[in-house]
């Protein structure tokens, strides 16, 4: 029985449905001798018995079936690049982490890949937080009760996306064999988790940057009398910026974060409050990235590109899937990526400046 919770270290026990019956018959029939030799030595990751049994199965498999297996490997090989087109950029997700770090971590895991425009190209805060012509604001939520509902829906949808990705990675590892390392099942699981490691490598130092502190200082439930309903024009009275929370105000009129903001309760309040109840940001007041932050994003961009290359190599070496199986795997990865992208779009839209774009 496949151990989907932790992965099955024994190869050639479970298969995807299309080719499963015929591969199982070959494995336990004609190739029974090499199978028994492998099962006696499967705990040795460097054992040659796994490759010998793989050779036997491929020798007894028809050429048409092997051609279909090769086509499926091509489909899976382009999966990382396709996911990178759908995922959020590292800059977008890192800005979100200044307000909701736990949600951002889950989104990174559920997305499985970062969007890369081009290597070492870094979006500026103005690029992300400015409204484009014709774009309208998402109205703020007045009720804290509805804010809780929205937050729960976000976490449930992202949690489902994460579960889908992890379950799928374990299943692919269990039901297939990688041609370059026959006896290891966990490469897909490593790949989907490594994007979270890359994100943390960038997001943790970013929390000490000026822009992260500014975003946290502009965080808190929107007062009932300052709700964005969308501008009707330049003279719209609802177009005024939302003020920071009163407890951050100093006698001189400037705003600074108080010690209470570092408490667990304040952290959880900020984390569990959806962007639709946080005040939006004024682009003119948002600090630019410091030089060290730009370098940090450059390193993260390089690692994200390497992550895609690594995934391409690993997934294109997968054997024993049919094209139909591969398409179903791809669509499940896509579903998680789309859910994560939608949540990021809503959260970033609620952060965008209330100022109309000029020109």
From TrEMBL:
Domain of life, per lineage: Eukaryota
Region entry Disordered, spans: 220-261
Bias kind Polar residues: ranges: 251-261
Record key words, sorted: Membrane, Transmembrane, Transmembrane helix
Membrane-spanning segments: 69-90, 102-120, 146-166, 186-208, 292-317, 329-349
Signal peptide span: none
Keyword Transmembrane: yes
Name this polypeptide is given: Uncharacterized protein
Species name: Colletotrichum fructicola (strain Nara gc5)
Higher taxonomy: Eukaryota, Fungi, Dikarya, Ascomycota, Pezizomycotina
């Amino acid at each position: 029985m496949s151990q989907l919770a932790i992965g099955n270290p024994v190869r050639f026990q479970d298969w995807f449905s299309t080719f499963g019956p015929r591969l199982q018959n070959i494995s336990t029939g004609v190739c029974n001798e090499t199978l028994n030799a492998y099962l006696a030595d499967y705990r040795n990751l460097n054992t040659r018995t796994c490759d010998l049994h793989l050779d036997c199965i491929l020798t007894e498999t028809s050429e048409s079936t092997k051609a279909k297996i090769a086509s499926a490997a091509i489909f899976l090989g382009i999966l990382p690049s396709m996911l990178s087109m759908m995922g959020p950029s590292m800059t977008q997700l890192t800005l979100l982490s200044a307000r909701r770090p736990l949600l951002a971590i889950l989104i990174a895991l559920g997305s499985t890949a970062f969007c890369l425009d081009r290597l070492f190209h870094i979006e500026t805060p103005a690029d992300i937080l400015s409204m484009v012509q014709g774009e309208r604001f998402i109205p703020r939520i007045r009720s804290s009760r509805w804010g809780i509902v929205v937050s729960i829906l976000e976490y449930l949808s992202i949690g489902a996306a994460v579960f889908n990705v992890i379950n799928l990675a374990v299943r692919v590892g269990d039901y297939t064999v990688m041609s370059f390392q026959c006896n290891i099942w966990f490469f897909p699981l490593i790949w989907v988790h490594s994007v979270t490691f890359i994100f943390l490598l960038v997001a943790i130092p970013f929390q000490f940057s000026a822009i992260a502190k500014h975003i946290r200082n502009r965080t808190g439930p929107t007062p009932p009398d300052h709700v964005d309903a969308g501008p009707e024009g330049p003279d719209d009275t609802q177009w005024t910026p939302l003020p920071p929370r009163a407890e951050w105000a100093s006698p001189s009129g400037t705003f600074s974060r108080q010690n209470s903001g570092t408490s667990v309760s304040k952290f959880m309040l900020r984390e569990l409050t959806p962007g639709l109840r946080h005040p939006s940001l004024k682009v003119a007041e948002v600090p630019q990235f410091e030089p060290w932050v730009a370098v940090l994003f450059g390193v993260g961009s390089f690692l994200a590109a390497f992550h895609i290359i690594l995934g391409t190599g690993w997934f294109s070496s997968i054997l024993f899937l049919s094209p139909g199986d591969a398409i179903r795997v791809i669509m499940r990865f896509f579903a998680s990526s789309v859910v994560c992208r939608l949540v990021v779009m809503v959260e970033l839209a609620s952060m965008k400046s209330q100022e109309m774009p000029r020109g």
